[in-house]
């Protein structure tokens, strides 16, 4: 089994008693921090969640999805198990119900999207059912997507997101952030690499952590589909936050 979280990362999740192989299993309940970094006293989790400021997941893959959605920069709000869809199965003519894993709101969209998180093997078995569920959600004006580990654990993005996760706590180096901002302002539109920012700021490792934090704050954008290192370009503005993550192998949708 692929280990989804390192022991250090597991310790940051509520609901995990011990960061060991016995705990790092496929299914368990846990929560992922989901705070508005710009205002730590006003978490972006919807009111009504059991724990405001945290998004709940029922498997490691769901928690990985939450982490990806939070730190890749597209999703602005998330709600676990948001509603019940009642639909008639044309194969049996029986009334059925489906509770999606998540409802998400993305930058620039006025409508929410419903997400089902499944391992690829199970998703393939449920493909016909998911197609029917998708059609019923579409009747109500909503999109329905199925996400598998092929997208959620895609490298190097998953490793990059794990680094961003480590920089999303309530404590930040305000002086380092402002120093990096000053370097970017003085570049006057020139696209700098992480190495160039480190050199110009004189902050060394602090500059790298500040750059990650500024991505989390959506003040700049890193290309998460490439390994983040000294050569990585740092982009300004929020327009690049609308980049697609890549299509789901199950739904065929651009997600």
Account of the protein in words:
It contains 9 helices and 11 strands. Helix 7 (174-186) crosses helix 8 and helix 8 (194-201) packs across helix 9. With 255 residues, it is an alpha+beta fold. The longest helix is centred in the middle third of the chain and has 13 residues, at 127-139. The chain is elongated, with a radius of gyration of 19 Å. The strands form 4 sheets. A 4-stranded mixed sheet has the order 3-6-7-8, sandwiched between helices. A hairpin with a 4-residue loop joins strand 4 (85-89) and strand 5 (94-98). The model is unreliable at 14-21, 37-52 and 239-255 (pLDDT under 50). It has helices spanning 7-10, 60-71, 120-125, 127-139, 149-152, 157-165, 174-186, 194-201, 205-216; strands at residues 27-33, 54-59, 75-80, 85-89, 94-98, 102-106, 113-117, 143-147, 192-193, 220-222, 233-236.
């Amino acid at each position: 089994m692929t280990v989804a979280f390192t022991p250090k990362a597991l310790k940051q999740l509520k609901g995990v008693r011990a960061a060991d192989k016995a705990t790092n299993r496929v299914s368990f309940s846990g929560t992922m921090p989901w705070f508005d970094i710009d205002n730590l006293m006003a978490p972006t989790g919807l009111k009504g969640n059991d724990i405001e400021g945290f998004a709940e997941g029922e498997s490691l893959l769901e928690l990985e999805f939450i982490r990806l959605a939070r730190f890749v920069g597209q999703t602005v709000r998330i709600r676990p198990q948001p509603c019940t869809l009642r639909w008639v199965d044309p194969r049996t003519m029986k009334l059925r119900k489906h509770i999606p894993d998540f409802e998400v709101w993305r930058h620039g969209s006025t409508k929410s999207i419903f997400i089902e998180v499944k391992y690829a093997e199970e998703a393939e078995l449920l493909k016909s059912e998911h197609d029917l569920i998708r059609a019923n959600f579409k009747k109500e004006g909503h999109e329905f997507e199925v996400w598998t580990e092929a997208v959620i654990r895609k490298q190097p993005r998953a490793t990059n997101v794990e680094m961003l996760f480590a920089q999303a706590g309530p404590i930040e180096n305000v002086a380092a952030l402002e120093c990096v901002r000053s370097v970017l302002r003085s570049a006057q539109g020139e696209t700098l690499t992480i190495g160039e920012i480190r050199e110009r700021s004189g902050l060394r490792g602090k500059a790298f952590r500040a750059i990650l934090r500024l991505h989390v704050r959506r003040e700049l954008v890193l290309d998460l589909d490439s390994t983040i290192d000294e050569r990585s370009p740092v982009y300004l503005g929020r327009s690049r936050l609308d980049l697609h993550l890549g299509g789901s192998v199950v739904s065929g949708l651009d997600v």
